[in-house]
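Chain A, query sequence.
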Amino acid sequence: MDNISVRIFTLSGINETINYRLTIFSLTFLYYCLILFLNIALIMVIIFDENLHQPMYILLCSFCINGLYGTTGFYPKFLLDLLSSSHEISYEGCLLQAFIMYSFACCDLSILAVMAYDRYLAICRPLHYHSLMNKKRLSLLVCFSWLTPFCIFSVSIILTSTLKLCHSKIPKLFCVNWIIVKLACPDTDTIANEIISQLTIFIYVSHGFFIFWTYMHLIRMCVKSKDDRVKFMQTCVPHLVSLITFLVVIVFDLMYMRFSPTNISQSLQNFIALEFLIIPPAMNPLIYGFKLTKIRNRILSLVYVDRK
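Chain A, predicted structure.
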């Protein structure tokens, strides 16, 4: 940390919204409350209903907790910035936010990979499902899905914290590790950061290939059996929708970061950068809440009891 030459960063991406900040604040606040309500409601339903204490629902609970973790790393700070004339963030706060953003996105992919494995066992190896997906293995898989991104990005952020920075302007609404690295002075060695970056890409591309492999087996199995097709439609379709949404949003953002087009407005750039914090956190609990029969029935029973 002796190399720190910048103590405060300026988030310049928010400047475009300054004329509409009260409207954006109101809409953002309501949307963040919606995200909190949907995810917390689903988590509470799963926790308090013992019939839902099964691997698929426990993984879904972990999925929703991660959604709360990621959005809490962005929305409170963004709401404060909308009410402030100074859009700054401390050096330590910026590194923390960068860590949360990256670990949130990669934790999502890790959980999706574990969920794909769970569905593979449930449909392709039903007789061995409960012995293979026991409490111990489930606990290990949940720990894997959280600890892997946490460990990787802890190393990445620690390496970034050793860089000598010569600039302080971040052209986004939140801190991103690769932008902080780009702010390093020209004579700063960033090879270690690049190695960690390539290693991270390899690990999570491998996650993607694993998910693709499991779904190829699932589809091949479901073609042979009507019962398996019904089970696939009930439990795998929500997972597939979440996966496709996540991949489209992340690939879109990565393509934007890779090619950095300068001919699009700052507002559109902000929306592209925020897609993974806007769409999946609200859509995932809605999809699973409506599609998974046990959760839907439980929610409807609670609503019906309240009306009585």
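The beta strands are 8-11, 88-90, 169-170. The first helix runs from residue 21 to 48.
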